[in-house]
Amino acid sequence: MELDWLGDALQIVGIGASVGASTVASISLKKNWRYRALRNVWGFGRRDRVMVVCTELDDPETRQFPEPREFIYSYKYGDLDALFEVVTTLLRLFPALELRVVSYNELDRSQLDLDSHLVLIGGPDYNKVTERILEEADTCFDYLSPYSRQPSRRHPDEIVLLARESGDELFFTTDKRDYGYFETLDNIYAEGKRIVLIGGCHTLGVTGAAKTFSVLNVARQETREIVLRNANRVWRHTRRKKRFAVLVEAHRVGTSISTPQVKTQNIWSP
């Protein structure tokens, strides 16, 4: 399913989710110099073609019929909060993007090529495009999971983020904290294009990683300043390299996920 403009995007990701005071469709940040580092972190051009590939849950047809005579298309998607953060951010920072949003199953059925910029949301258990990239590309992070190709030997029942270089296995045992990551690399299927990986051990970590560089709640000054500080820190630390990875800790307080603050020691730039 393609997204030609934000109205369609809101329908696909479920506008029923609360967005507070944000006026999604009316805010464009393309000419605001304060957001230059944030645009550079995402790394797209004004009119680039970008495909967002999100997770799709098991038994999607069953999930889409929550009650008799009711049908909700977007109930098939996983990581909906992260998807909403990403789509809103991209269309605010780059209003002229040619943006397409698909799940990995939709991508497979439509036989679309991976020759554009890619934003991959979620881990390999529910996003097989992410699984393919982790197998074929030289990424900073990987997953060890009982639900994917390789479990952790030390923690076989846990979904673990693996830092490839150090071998560290990262996870929390509480539902109030999680690890997430935001990684960019060259698209191995298309010269001159890039891949953005947004992942985490669980949905909390994935959403936290998306919120780290999100402008969904740009109207909130505290959130805005954290996001801008995150972007500037990454852009300075990586010396403007297009390839980098950022590890974040996501925290949930009640039903809210706070915006993570990037620490310099958790930034990698090969």
Give helix % range.
25-40%
Number of strands: 11
User: What is the overall pLDDT average?
Assistant: 87
Return Rg in Å. 17 Å
Number of helices: 8
Spans of at least 5 consecutive residues with low confidence: 1-26
Would you tell me the structural class of the helices and strands?
Answer: alpha/beta
Could you describe the 3D structure shown?
This protein has eight helices and eleven strands. By secondary structure, the chain is an alpha/beta fold. The chain is globular. It starts with 5 loop residues before the first helix and ends with a strand.
Helix-strand blueprint:
Elements lengths: L5 H8 L22 H7 L6 E6 L5 H4 L16 H14 L4 E6 H7 L6 E5 L6 H9 L4 E4 L15 E4 L5 E2 L6 E10 L7 E7 L2 H10 L8 H17 L6 E10 L2 E2 L9 E2 L2
Parallel strand pairs: 1-2, 1-3, 3-8
Antiparallel strand pairs: 4-5, 5-6, 7-8, 7-9, 9-10, 9-11
Helix pairs in contact: 1-4, 2-8, 4-7
Keywords: Membrane, Transmembrane, Transmembrane helix
Q: Which features would summarize this protein structure in a list?
A:
alpha/beta; 11 strands; 8-stranded mixed β-sheet; disordered N terminus
